[in-house]
Amino acid sequence: CYFSLDKDSNSEEIGIEGGSMTGQVSVMKMSTKEQAELVYTSTLSLIDIHRSLYTKVITILPKFVIINNTDEKLLLTQEKLNDDFTIIDSHARDNFRWLNGEGTKMVMIKCLDCKAPDPINEWAWSSPFNLEEIGAQNLRNVSRNNPDMFMYWKVDRRIQNEMIYITVDKEDEKHPLYLIENKAKHIILKYKQKSEKNSEYLDTSESKRFAWDNLYEKHVLQCEAWFKGKKNVKLCNININLDELEKNEEFRYNLEEIIDSDELLE
């Protein structure tokens, strides 16, 4: 048999002979290149025990289901198709289709900010991520009007009966995946992902959540340490690989070699 979305599309041929079976199939609309990925099961159901009569039941389900667990409307797009997107309402779920089955199979999300003058473009897209990469990751959107404003998401992908459920929640502020704390006295930190351009600042005794602007570049935090005083003095650059757990990066400095301490201190 074949699966189709309309008269303009057909899947490859699927054999349904024999007993129970499970499989996956892709169907593309040739006119738009839109592609659906489906999961199917074929089972035998006994309908007459006395005559041993069976019927074959074929169940077709979407491979990807997006669950919006937030109070916000979400926009989803395929990487490099920023102007073509799907809207997932707050606390709703929907099956996911590739907008271009011949394009990159990566997805980006952002908030549809209904309170903003330009709801669609108030926030930049998140890092692309892979729907089939089972597990949890955190993502963020950066405000286009205020680069110091972020919206953080937790994306959790789980597989059940060949289907992949992608749940999007607001990241818990008390238990973020990454938390950067500045406990150094008189030190300001400037940091960003090494391969990206969005820099952030952390004052003494401050802490902030963090997410990678590109999940698939190296997880290296490029950090500058500045002495905070009447004159801010750059002390050093350090690169911290956050994938290398339990590794300490240290730097030492002598303020007297930089500038007279009386001039530095407020």
Describe it for me?
This protein is mainly beta. The chain is built from two helices and 17 strands. The chain is elongated and about 90 Å long.
Features:
266 residues; disordered C terminus; four-stranded antiparallel β-sheet; mainly beta; five-stranded mixed β-sheet; elongated; single chain
Structural class: mainly beta
H/I helix tally: 2
Helix content: under 10%
- Measure the end-to-end span: 78 Å
Share in β-strands: 35-45%
Q: Count the E strands.
A: 17
Low-confidence stretches: 261-266
Largest sheet: 5 strands, mixed
The overall average pLDDT, rounded, is 85
Overall radius of gyration: 25 Å
What gross morphology would you assign?
elongated
Write the layout of secondary structure elements.
Elements: E1 21-28, E2 35-48, E3 53-62, E4 64-68, E5 73-78, E6 85-88, E7 93-95, E8 107-112, E9 135-142, E10 150-160, E11 163-170, E12 179-181, E13 187-193, E14 200-202, E15 207-209, E16 220-227, E17 233-241, H1 255-258, H2 261-264
Parallel strand pairs: 4-11
Antiparallel strand pairs: 1-2, 2-3, 4-7, 5-6, 5-8, 9-10, 10-11, 12-15, 13-14, 13-16, 16-17
Write a brief structural summary.
The chain is mainly beta. Helices cover 3% and strands 44% of the residues.
